[in-house]
Amino acid sequence: MTVAELNHQNSRLEESLYLRSFKPRLMDWQAAKVFALKNLRIAIRYPANFMIWGVLPLLWYAPYILMMVAIAGPGTSQHFTELSGFQDFITFSIIAVFVYQYVDKSIWSVGNNFRWEQFSGTLEPLFVTPVPRISILVGAAFSDTLQCTFSACVLLIISSLLFGVTYAFTMVAPIVVMLTMMVFALYGFSFLIAGMILVFKDPSVLTELISNVTYVLSPITYPLQALPSAARYASVLVPSTVAIITIRELAITGLFEPITFLQAAGWMLALIIGFWGIGILAFRWGENWTKERGSMGGF
Amino acid sequence: MKQNAVEIEDLSKTFISIRRRAIVVPVEKTRVEALRSITLDIPKGQIYGLLGPNGAGKTTLIKCLATLVLPTSGTARVNGYDVLKESTYARASIGVCQGNERSIYWKLSARENMIFFAKLYRMTDSEAKERADDLLGRMGLLEKADEKTENLSHGMRMKIVFARALLHDPPILLLDEPTQGLDPTFATDLRKYIRDELRDKTILLTTHYMHEADLLCDKIALINEGELKSFGTPKELKEEVRNYDSLHMKVVGTPDLEHIKAMDMVLSATSTERNGHSELVVTAQDGYELAYRLLAIMHQTPDVKVEHFEVKEPTLDDVFLKLTGRRIED
Q1: Mean pLDDT of A14-27
Q2: Number of residue pairs across A and B with CB atoms under 8 Å?
Q3: CB contact under 8 A, B81 and A7
């Protein structure tokens, strides 16, 4: 029993029902759920967002298809096939763009949420509740992952209608497992960014930098072999690289190789632990930094 | 048995801001002492006022107790819990109302806002709804409960912010200028609620409205430039200037304040200029004698004409003026 718990037990001040039953938690899942639902409810009240979520990824992707067609002709080239081992460039890249929706959203989500709460003036009221910070961070991340699932599915549906791409739906289960692990690893990354945002306030430059570096290192519109060798080593440290390669293989070939999958899952688990450790420490540092300067609600 | 709901000992907070050249090179370090060795005990069940002008340190003190700002030195305990070492328990023991209507979600309704925060305090769906409706009802907002907050008036939003602080029925309330910017009707409603309905709570109330502090508070601490100047009941504080009168004079033109301050019987003098008029407040042991002498001086001063004067009973503002040389509303 900690000193605080002992103190709480011995407290003789008149206390409310809430205080009598209060116990601090490391993680409050109810709070995370409530926070995520609140964010979703607010998001729905900006209806234009839904249109943008679905259409925007296609607009980002279009220049790559056009460039590929202009350089190599429609669909594929011999060099691309030799380098990647896949036949069709569009099928190859759309599944990666689908996965990258989660990467992009996970990097931006938590930090932007905190920024939004700062601007709204609601960050301080949240921080005076006895809810563990991690629950608020996870709640913010959940709501963005759900929104992202919506936009990524719209992207997949529109792409299959426009380009006729098809994937092995029998591989949905391992794809969901890998996608979930990647998203969890990136949550740790976004906690780090949320901590930085508490300190530096303006997230745009910092997040843009990280987002672009991740984008370059993730083999989305090119195979990993296309990266310079040093960058190829660095890319293994980015969760999206492992996820994109594994999911692409599963979705296009429809073949499940347990050993390869377990190796990828093991590496992803290591990344989750690493990123969460760094992320939570960085967030705590950021929170203390702002408390020392009294700039929690400032922007 | 613990006697004090809030115990503050030798609490200081210094903010350091660094001006940098080319983003990284520090060129100037500014230290602002927001709180200087504050020591204050608030017995449970009392309404304690923290009265002082803007920038006096009131909000910083509230934020230290609310665990939003880390003190530089000293200790603070709320409900027996150290705000640094037992911050989660401390947060569970307090309800905080900051005078900021933006601190609720404008895209959510009043009820949705209340239920959201109630659930953060681990209430079930039905408990949260019941508690939200109960408090909104007490605030006279039940009819507007499903209206988006963005469509409500400033006063109504502030009532929601206030009601939110009561959601988990905390024994201690930190109210930071809860009536700031409210129209008189809403402000009166809120004050009445604090006075009549929250008698069992320990309340630390910051305000720069003297009449609010006078009306609501069992005890008042006067704070200026981060320092506690005096504390006691409103009556005790006024005793400090019991032997003094306060002369309020409305003058056309600008009187020579330094000359007035230099008069042997004058204890303090301030002047506020508005639209070519000066409002002069001067304290002295004998207000009537002072008025007689000042009128004579004014009469001889060109371009200055006395329009109105009045000798008043001392107020908390006069106490503050005597202790700090400035007015609370400065």
Answers
A1: 80
A2: 132
A3: yes
- SS (HEC) of chain B: CCCEEEEEEEEEEEEEEEEEECCCEEEEEEEEEEEEEEEEEEECCCEEEEECCCCCCHHHHHHHHCCCCCCCEEEEEECCEECCCCHHHHHHHEEEEECCHHHCCCCCEHHHHHHHHHHHCCCCHHHHHHHHHHHHHHCCCHHHCCCEHHHCCHHHHHHHHHHHHCCCCCCEEEEECCCCCCCHHHHHHHHHHHHHHCCCCEEEEEECCHHHHHHHCCEEEEEECCEEEEEECHHHHHHCCCCCEEEEEEEECCCCHHHHHCCCCEEEEEEEEECCEEEEEEEECCHHHHHHHHHHHHHHCCCCEEEEEEEECCCHHHHHHHHHCCCCCC
Per CB-CB distance under 8 Å, the chain A contacts of B70 are 288, 291-292
Model pLDDT for residues A157-209, shown as the tens digit of each residue: 888 888 888 888 888 899 999 999 999 898 888 888 888 888 877 766 777 78
Cα of B23 to nearest chain A Cα, Å: 12
- Complex ipTM more than 0.85, yes or no: no
| A17, A129, A292 member nearest B91 (Cβ) | A129
A19 and B92 in contact by Cβ < 8 A?
yes
Mean pLDDT along residues B246-256? 87
